[in-house]
Specification:
With about 325 residues, the protein is α/β, with parallel strands linked by helices. The protein has 11 helices and 13 strands.
Length: about 325
């Protein structure tokens, strides 16, 4: 089967492509290699994919209608699309809001339009985010909760993507599945995410910024568990019963919410260095806690996250040290 993966040079996209290739799929990767963070990291990920049999790559922006329509139309046997490309990051949405609407709203629309015209396409899977739960205070977050109180533009664009997917499932009976990711970390992670930011600062002896005065809890989810969930979702397109749209939403999280302070302690142990902590107020757009209800994901996808932070963080640190040595 041929699967098109957008955001192929990104963190989750890279690992998803590797997993698909490992099980014998043909993978068409798409990425615009933008400079939101160090392009060298994206290029390093991509270099590891381009040496794999069955992988091809298109440098393109998902908001480019002509480019994405051409990329999809060129695949005669395209059976699945995994749309992971996005402008990520809650805090950056305060600085550059237009980038979020272009990538996350227009990009989602372009991909849905291309997908509905793809002959033989069985499933459109796309990345959403735990951020859509916004101001909800009932934990754990469940997919049947209302999500109409976003506290960041990033969250609003991700919720918009879910609503558009529902509309396309309704209008065109196209099976779509949205995946709400919870605080993903691991090897090849993004430099703007907590694990990398903290490791970089600790190694250099710089203070780390600990928001909400350290009173934060997150459902940290290891990348291998996330990718297992992505592939399981791809393999289980929602059935069309002729009534309700063939549309699904799932949480993909570790379902073990952790204090940020414990996350930092595990990172300190793995690095063999103590952090200098600079306590700061909670940032606009942030929420104090996330926790995933994954009952539906377990039941319908067989999703079974296995990696606690005590195991996942040392794996991240091992990669981080190797990567930084090679970068320098």
């Amino acid at each position: 089967m041929t699967v098109l993966v957008t955001g192929a040079a990104g963190f989750i996209g890279f690992h998803t492509c590797r997993a698909l290739l490992a099980r014998g799929e043909t993978v068409v990767g798409v990425d615009n290699l933008n400079d939101y963070y160090d392009v060298r990291l994206k290029q390093s990920r991509l270099a590891r994919l381009e040496g794999e049999p069955g992988f091809s790559f298109h440098k393109a922006d998902v908001s480019d209608r002509e480019a994405m329509t051409a990329a999809v139309d060129a695949q005669d046997d395209l059976s699945g699309i995994i749309h992971l490309a996005a402008q990520a990051g809650v805090r950056y949405s305060l600085e550059n809001p237009y980038a979020y609407v272009e990538a996350n709203v227009m990009g989602q629309l372009v991909m849905l339009e291309a997908a509905r015209r793809a002959k033989g396409l069985k499933h459109f899977v796309y990345a959403s985010s735990s951020s859509v739960y916004g101001g909800n205070t009932e934990l754990p977050f469940a997919v049947d909760q209302r999500v109409d109180s976003p506290v960041s533009l990033y969250a609003a664009t991700k919720r918009s993507g879910e609503l558009m997917a529902h509309t396309y499932s309704h209008l065109y009976r196209m099976p779509t599945t949205g995946l709400r990711f919870f605080t993903v970390y691991g090897p090849w992670g993004r430099p703007d995410m907590a694990a990398y930011l903290f490791a970089d600062a600790i190694e250099a002896g710089r203070p780390i910024r600990v928001f909400n005065n350290g009173q934060m809890r997150r459902d940290f989810t290891f990348i291998e568990d996330i990718v297992a969930g992505v592939l399981a979702a791809l393999d289980h397109p929602p059935a069309d019963d002729g009534a309700a749209p063939p549309f699904k939403l799932y949480n993909l999280g570790n379902s073990r919410t952790e204090e940020l302070s414990h996350f930092i302690e595990v990172l300190e142990t793995a690095l063999g260095k103590k952090a200098v902590r600079r306590l700061e107020p909670i940032q606009p757009g942030d929420v104090p806690a996330t926790s995933a209800d994954i009952e539906a994901s377990r039941r319908e996808l067989g999703f079974d996250p296995k990696t606690p932070i005590d195991v996942g963080i040392p794996k991240f640190v091992e990669w981080y040290k190797d990567y930084v040595r090679g970068r320098n």
